[in-house]
Known about the structure:
The chain is α+β, with helices and mostly antiparallel strands and 125 residues long. Helices cover 15% and strands 54% of the residues. The protein has one helix spanning 2-20; strands at 28-33, 38-43, 49-58, 64-71, 76-77, 81-82, 84-86, 89-96, 100-110, 113-123. It comes from Actinokineospora soli.
Amino acid sequence: MKALAVVAALFAVAVVGWLVWPTDSAPTVLHASTGTHAVRLELAEPKTGVAGVRLEVTGPEPDAVTVEPVMPQMGHVIPPVPATRDGAGYRADVPLTMGGQWVITVTLHGPTGTEDVDFPLLVNG
């Protein structure tokens, strides 16, 4: 009976430790470039649900920016989401419907055409 109480106490300590253990709260930041632009993509946390994507674009000012998440292994394609101006960059809320490997395509629309920048992203389910 005493051994059972010790095991229960150890289990309780382990659960409390797991719940209060500090986690890495740093955002995920990815960089990529085209011949004309450099793009910095930032997500607070890559997990399922609606992800707030922040973008910084260096180079000629694009007329419009869209963000399109695709999960090639599962055949999931989410329609492109227009990014809106947000301070010095852009912001888009994109749905990530399940955990796994995604590709986030940022399309920069400008007077000389469009450029795509692809970012591989592992999403936690």
